[in-house]
């Protein structure tokens, strides 16, 4: 037993060494990967050994969850009025004002692009490295699906916020861009392949214990596939993928003392940058049911006050907002019901759409793996009005999916009012898409023109 534990400790130390090296190798896109220290791992060690690929898979999750996830969840929340700015930082003030004055130098929007591209590049290296190493089929399938999942998720979040996406990183920083519709199609293809790989060979115990941990990979890939099929307008495929997700399954990003929860960092720490809007950013035409338990789940209704720009805000209350080491859901089960409701509504199947919507509305906190549920007892009916049904679905997306990074995509897809040309803090959203970083434009001639607003 002592010999086994000694070997296990040595393996853990080796993996930690690789993770440390990976943090150096992939922290900057243009860095030299051929390190001269003979005692350190090289790029070849990382990309041509099993231990290196496992460490790279762990590092991909770490970089995505700690560095990239915060910007993709918090930045668009200001643009769509899910949150309000609480500091006088110039970049944050510019983000809340939006419009044409939002520049390619804005640090908040630029972090989405730079950090997500970095995580995506790590996923791409993982996928490429699998061709260099002979692995157990279950370990290989897990690592391949893992790389596809993180690349697809990165592409998806970029497509939420930009008109065009560079779906493949280039070391020489001359990546080409495709329009966001094609980018969603790429994400769908990646996830379709991931599901196929996982179905053919279930992930090995080695992969689950070493890499995936608290992420149910197959359910997560199907959930993301449902999301991007919906956003691609493939409604039947979106319903099919959502139906395959076990709503009792739970997938989370985990944090610790060194790798802290980014929502806590933005919403709760000493200098609070963001506060949730008391009305979830919904205009007065939407009435939130008095008994909707999601309000009390996400917000503390007894602490309503005004932001710097006199917008009503509340203290956050959801468990993944309140602790530096709290888990953040990779996706929420309720999103699958909302996908089925929306996809059926857009296909004209009103009965199925309202059934899925009412399943969501009537879901109690005890019936949800995260304790999130409206718990309403009435049954909603649109009276056959598709437009009214879609408005109700939109409202429920805002209430169920607060700070999940989808509010800007949702606002455009549901044809909510266009951004104003002048600063207007009462507008539902203040931009359609973000400008590309000036630094990217200066170094990559393929960068597309910035959208006007």
CATH topology of the domain at 11-215 and 422-453: Serine Threonine Protein Phosphatase 5, Tetratricopeptide repeat
Instruction: Give the helix level as a range of percent.
Output: 40-55%
First-last Cα distance? 64 Å
Query: What is the string of SSEs from the N terminus onward?
Result: HHHEHHHEEHHHHEHEHEEEHHHHH
CATH class group of the domain at 11-215 and 422-453? Mainly Alpha
How many runs of DSSP E, i.e. beta strands?
8
The profile of the biggest β sheet is: 2 strands, antiparallel
Number of separate helices: 17
Walkthrough of the structure:
A hairpin with a 5-residue loop joins strand 6 and strand 7. Mean pLDDT is 92; it is low at 1-10 and 27-41. The chain has 17 helices and eight strands. The protein has a domain at 11-215 and 422-453: Serine Threonine Protein Phosphatase 5, Tetratricopeptide repeat (Alpha Horseshoe). The chain is 52% helix and 6% strand.
């Amino acid at each position: 037993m002592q010999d086994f534990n000694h070997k296990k400790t040595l393996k853990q130390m080796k993996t930690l060494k690789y993770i440390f090296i990976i943090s150096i190798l992939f922290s900057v896109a243009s860095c030299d990967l051929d390190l001269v220290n003979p005692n350190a791992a090289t790029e070849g060690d990382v990309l041509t050994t099993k231990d290196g690929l496992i460490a790279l898979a762990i590092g991909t999750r770490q970089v995505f969850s700690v560095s990239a996830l915060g910007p993709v969840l918090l930045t668009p929340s200001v643009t769509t009025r899910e949150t309000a700015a609480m500091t006088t930082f110039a970049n944050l003030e510019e983000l809340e004002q939006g419009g044409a004055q939002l520049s390619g130098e804005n640090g908040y929007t630029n972090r989405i692009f730079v950090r997500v591209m970095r995580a995506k590049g790590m996923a791409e290296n993982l996928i490429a490295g699998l061709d260099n190493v002979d692995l157990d089929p279950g370990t290989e399938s897990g690592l391949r699906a893992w790389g596809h999942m993180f690349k697809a998720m990165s592409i998806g979040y970029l497509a939420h916020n930009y008109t065009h996406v560079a779906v493949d990183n280039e070391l020489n920083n001359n990546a080409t861009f495709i329009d966001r519709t094609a980018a969603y199609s790429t994400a769908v293809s990646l996830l379709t392949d991931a599901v196929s790989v996982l179905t053919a060979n279930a992930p090995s115990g080695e992969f689950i214990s070493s890499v995936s941990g608290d992420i149910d990979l197959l359910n997560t890939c199907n959930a993301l596939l449902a999301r991007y099929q919906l956003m691609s307008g493939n409604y039947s495929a979106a319903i099919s993928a959502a139906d395959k997700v076990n709503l009792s399954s739970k997938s989370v990003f985990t944090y610790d003392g060194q790798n802290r929860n980014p929502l806590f960092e933005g919403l709760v720490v000493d200098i609070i940058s963001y506060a949730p809007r008391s009305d979830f950013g919904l205009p007065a035409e939407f009435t939130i049911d008095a008994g909707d338990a999601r309000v009390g789940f996400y917000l503390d209704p007894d602490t309503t006050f005004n932001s710097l720009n006199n917008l009503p805000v509340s203290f956050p209350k959801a468990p993944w907002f309140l602790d530096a080491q709290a888990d953040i859901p990779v996706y929420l089960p309720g999103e699958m019901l909302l996908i089925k409701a929306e996809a059926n509504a857009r296909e004209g199947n009103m009965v199925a759409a309202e059934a899925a919507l009412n399943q969501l509305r009537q879901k109690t906190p005890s019936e949800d793996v995260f304790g999130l549920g409206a718990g309403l007892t009435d049954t909603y009916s649109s009276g056959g009005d598709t437009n009214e049904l879609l408005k109700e679905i939109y409202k429920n997306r805002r209430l169920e999916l607060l700070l999940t990074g989808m509010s800007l995509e949702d606002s455009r897809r549901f044809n909510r009012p266009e951004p104003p040309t002048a600063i207007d803090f009462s507008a539902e959203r203040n931009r359609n898409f973000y400008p590309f970083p000036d630094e990217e434009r200066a170094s990559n001639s393929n960068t597309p023109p910035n959208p006007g607003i």
